[in-house]
Specification:
16% of the residues lie in helices and 33% in strands. It has 707 residues and is an alpha+beta fold.
Length: 707
Amino acid sequence: MKNLLLPLPLLVFLLFSCKQNSNPSQWNYPVTKKVDTVDKYHGVSVPDPYRWLENDTSKETAEWVAAQNKVTSEYLSKIPFREKIRERLTKIWNYTKMSTPFKEGNRYFYFKNDGLQNQDILYVTEDLAKEGKIFFDINKLSADGTVALAGMEFSKDGKYMAYSIARGGSDWSEIFVKDATTGNDLKDKLNWVKFSGISWYKDGFYYSRYDEPTKGKELSNVNEFHKVYYHKLGTEQKQDVLVYENKNFPKRNYGAGVTDDEKYLILSETEATDGEALYVKDLAKPNAEFVKIAEGFKYSYGVLDHQDGKLLVRTNHNAPRYKLIAIDLKDPKPEKWTDVIPEKQDVLEGIMIAGGKMLVSYMRDVHTVVEICDLSGKKTGEIELPTLGQIISFSTKKKENIAFYTFTSYTFPATIFKYDIKENKSEMFFQPKIDFDASQYETKQVLYISKDGTKVPMDLVYKKGIKLDGSNPVMIYGYGGFNVSYPPNFSITRLIWLENGGIYANAHIRGGGEYGEEWHQAGTVLKKQNVFDDFITAAEFLIKEKYTSPDKIAIMGGSNGGLLIAAVINQRPDLYKVAFPMVGVLDMLRFHKFTIGWAWCGDYGSSDNKEQFEYLYKYSPLHNIKSGVEYPATMVITADHDDRVVPAHSFKYAATLQEKYKGKNPALIRIETMAGHGAGKSTVKKIEEQTDIWSFALFNIGITPKY
């Protein structure tokens, strides 16, 4: 089984000049009808007047989307420098990008994009010193780039590649199989696959899927009864063997993976986004049952490998910052588990075994540190990295002595290094050529004190020589949930902001995984307000230290981060000038009623619970929009094929904001078509979206780009 060294991610209206029109009557938003829907939660009546917008396939909703996009498009088209932003983005985007090479059989594979291709192309070569040949060009599957590669896995012998594709940004995917020698597709085709890996065993593979959804409700119906199947090459999907299902718990997900030696099948059972139960099946015994070796759902268990009858498992079981343990399959009781790499102060993120060593990745104050250990877990050295940043991917095989990794930081574009495991030496393998002078910029990490006294780290990136006079524009990014961290990374789109004197601030707020499970739990359920307080305090800190002022602050976040942005502009609208709540969870009372939303109750709680309902209702963005206050210039961003956080969240929120807010700033919604939650978006759509984001931000803060 593989374990990568990974931390395992806007407009509407009339404008006549560079100045905003401050007359509220000029914001001619589409009229959004209201209905009399009222829900009762534990005796509390809650109106939901825009419930009809939850019907994503209705003609009425489609007309509303078109009308909103028309207003937004007209607004954006009047920004005088928008085309200059697009030209600059297109120019700097047009450089060769390459992924970390990986070896399958006797050949190497890597993804490459020559610059502006919509989707990266998979290449193959027997010698990395020579340019590879195209193995799979996903761009040929759609003229507009809206079909994307969602996953892939080669068979143990490298003869076949199973791959999944997603259409229009949806989480639904289809699995196909290629002959790795010829590159030709076989007849195999699997449908209705979602939240699934691909794990080869003998002449087939394990995968997970749901039953076919109700026609017309594919992007909104609740996902239930996840099942694991085994597919044998050359057969039809209807012949696939059901490996595991649980009819008693429809809202649980299951994933299966085979150990590298193909001796055991490992089954993971989850009911939220964090924590699982773990089962094992002896594949040498045809009628063997799954045996539970770890109870759910308090802790996480990631199986690294099987060695001599023991499973090596990365876990936070009684170790909030994670450790590596060995579980003896003959006696797997928790009291018999042994530590291989004990918990440390740093967060253990991932482990790979290669060249007789363990390559162990840690997160230390939100940057990557990689230690070299022997197979007993004893540290023997470290990999020297170029600067403070993160390794975003690492590839090697157990018997290989060479590895490749990709390193990045805020001002260090993603660069590939070739690593000699025996010599513990890295050499640059591929460095992109970008129209960017890193020497003009600097990065520093600051600590600020949140409302309850907690110290929170924040990274700042800016041009050298800035003056702390309160006049600098700042873009604050935040996420704060689901144990997810956002270490330093390079973004070509962020250059638009930095080149024009902007400061980029990455606030590592609670709810994420920056300091392990305790940091995560401190921002969940009845402690979610900590997340908002941390973000609000970040802005207050930047103002106090004279980096900026409220009329120069823009804020951005996506998904759970979209919830964050919408919540904080409700709570402190005076702190921000521009806001981008992107693909956000905005109706905290109904999120669990759509697709996979029920899995987020572990982080959010649920309105089905009285105490949790009362807490959710107090901060739910949709339900706390106020009249009579001045909101920032806001552009809500969503997409019509987002079946992770369904667009109804953004639709209802935007309609409510437009209804209640009568101030001078625009309240727009940008709805992308043939796109989803973000993964697999084409280059064309990315450039269009980023052009609109930075144009809206710069215009509303009052900055004219120097292009």
